[in-house]
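Exam review. A common question shows you a sequence with its structure tokens and asks you to describe the fold in words. Practice with the pair below. Do the first one on your own.
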Amino acid sequence: MSNPSDDILSRLQQSAQKGATDASESNAHDGSPFTQTRPIPPLDKWNPEHCGDMDLTIRANGEWWHEGGRMTRQKMVDLFSSVLWTEEVDGQTQYFLKTPVEKIGIQVEDAPLIAVEAEEIEYQGKLYIELKTENGDYVVASEDHPIVMRKYAGEMRPYVLVRGGLWALIHRNTFFHLVGMGELTTTKNTTLLELKSGDASFVLEQKG
């Protein structure tokens, strides 16, 4: 007898694959660095009913766990991350895997994505900070995609807004790379890092 949760994963995989194919066929690239990203299905145009929750958790270190076992197939994780969806429900952030026909609730301990690369790119005479997630999302830091610090488990951690309310934790090694792109100001109890990306500026504060 098949596991109902496995059946859900199989349906989600099929729908996500079709969505990725449709998004790829409609994706236009104008040659600028701001369109360098993987195709993402039009999740905002899909309005399925909430079909319940499943035992799937994205842990604070970015690992995906399903029914107590780690999902190790990176291609599947990348696929499912392309249909991640978030909503504010009664003041609480909730996460789902969303397809045209179903919306399944999942658990996220911290941020659903992890930024693992950062580099400066030049475009039309200005320098921008581009970050890449481990799932293949590219995002250029801007007012619409800010870099911020916030606390998790008693520790201040850096994040960047990728898309549709989905944040990526900036990996420690990647953050060290970002430090080299910015300007540090240190006082007795506070360290400020100013990062500039195009016309946007971000000041990250670390105390202690």
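Now try the second one, then compare your answer with the model answer below.
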Amino acid sequence: MLQLKHSNIRALTSFASLSLALLLAVVQVAASDEKADRDKPMNIEADNLLHDELKQVSVFTGHVVLTKGTMVMRGDRIEIRTDADGYQFGVILPESNKRAFFRQKREGLDEFMEGEAERIEYDGRTDRVSLLGRAVLRRYNGAKLNDEMSGQTIVYDNVSERFTVDAQPVKGAPAGGASTNARVRAWMTPTPSGGATK
């Protein structure tokens, strides 16, 4: 009878170890969701689509909404190109007198980066988003606006979670529309000590 109890304990211990290993695997997958946005499929809705299989280019027009994991992009025209290695590259253009839109969740936090510009470029190989022409980048903690930066060119690197803001437009980028401001502007909320912000 005593041997049966020991074997039951061994079986329960084995089962508990296996359950714990599976739980840890699920937690690790969930924690890396935002970083894995670039590996998620692209879902696009639009009024029209023109696809060129030979050039691997798709042009979506009319109220276009693109989602890729936690990433959302909106504009009037989105051109998607896929290179020989399978990486996707996108150019998002807005309706006349408006700006294209970008939003993505930050890794492991209840925070979102959100941007607008006259042209948005997405590079799937480097996981970078470039906001070109009257560019604005905002950081939200939940629904609360924490920080806002503006300039002519903003480049957001999702891998390092860093960005640069430049008052001068990149060569070939939109000239900046009605904006004549040649300075970078930033509005930043202080982070309480011990806060979750990176």
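Model answer, second protein: The chain has a mean pLDDT of 79. The helical segments are 2-31. Full marks require stating both points clearly.
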